[in-house]
Amino acid sequence: GRDLWVLVLGRFPTHHKIGIPEFKYVANMHGDETVGREILLHLIDFLVTSYRRDPVITRLLNNTRIHIMPTMNPDGFEATKVPDCYYTRGRYNKNGEDLNRNFPDAFDNNNASIQPETRAVMDWIKNETFVLSANLHGGALVASYTFDNGNSVTGSSKGYSRSPDDDVFIHLAKTYSFNHASMYKGTGCDNRQTFPEGITNGYSWYQLEGGMQDYNYIWGQCFEITLELSCCKYPPEDQLEKFWRDNKAALIEYIKQVHLGVKGQVTDKNGNPIANAIVEAQGRPHVCPYRTNEQGEYFLLLLPGTYVINATVPGFRSMLKTLEIPDNTGNFSALKHDFSFPEVSIRSRAASCPRIPLYQELERASAAVKPTLHTLVLTTVMLVIFK
């Protein structure tokens, strides 16, 4: 029955402000992995004391709403009576459940009973417009990215589970690893485990069902990576200052990436926001389409380049816009582009994505339909006839 505490920092910490992206750090999901918990407390202190003193931190906080949850599993942390570098029962919550195997999964039926901590985080994700996130762990030294699970649709048969935004995830992981004191070296924690450039696709490392980073990406429209920050899960206290120094620059540079890509509002002919409009970049559709929030806002993390952005209000003609997207992270604001639907004067109905394993259904559909050339021709003719 205890609370999970989050500190929110920014120019407008108490509420969402249109155009200001939401960012989050979560640590101590496994109660015995303590480094992330401690360095997030250091990060809070650094951000607060640097505001209006450091121009970069001041601009960052003026243009970003930053949520920090130092511990997602306080019961597990307190259960770790004897600190250990490798494993203790404090990994799990009070009910003996692994919280990073506890979320709905996009690939498999996850039969785990949803825990109170998991439910609280799911509700938190639902109630905020998170754009970017990181989940801090221990036991290795690497930045791991989506997908953690996979099937033939995402190419996992080849040992890699690729998301539609794989290029962005690689960039995010490298942003952290190359700004970390040593993660980029990729040496891992022993000779058996190496990670080139200090990053890995989650599935390539090991398959994980019910993980939080896949849940964020599929159902939360939030890009999340998992940061493994220490070979020793619960190191001695006198090492904490060094862990903070090793991660300080990386933590700040990673937050800046929330300003990648493009953002804007979708409105009707009267200038009213349209919620639940679909806004995505062509060529990278999400299995659960990314939609605008209640203020009609969308945020798309994209690397610099040329993209066609497709805005769709169900029942109306889509709007397409070709945009040249620069790297605006240094300006603390993604490229802004609004869409106005002159023929629309109604609020879009609420839309939700089912919690069923979406990629599982997609795999079944692709396996069931493997048409020959003759079948494809016939299908095309039938579509023309019945249009």
TrEMBL record:
Coiled coil: none annotated. GO terms for biological process: peptide metabolic process; protein processing. Residues 1-258 form the Peptidase M14 domain. One of its GO terms (molecular function) is zinc ion binding. The keyword Hydrolase applies. One of its GO terms (cellular component) is extracellular space. Keywords: Carboxypeptidase, Glycoprotein, Hydrolase, Protease. SUPFAM superfamilies: Carboxypeptidase regulatory domain-like (SSF49464), Zn-dependent exopeptidases (SSF53187). InterPro entries: CarboxyPept-like_regulatory, CARBOXYPEPT_ZN_1, Peptidase_M14, Peptidase_M14_domain. Belongs to the peptidase M14 family. This is CBPM Carboxypeptidase.
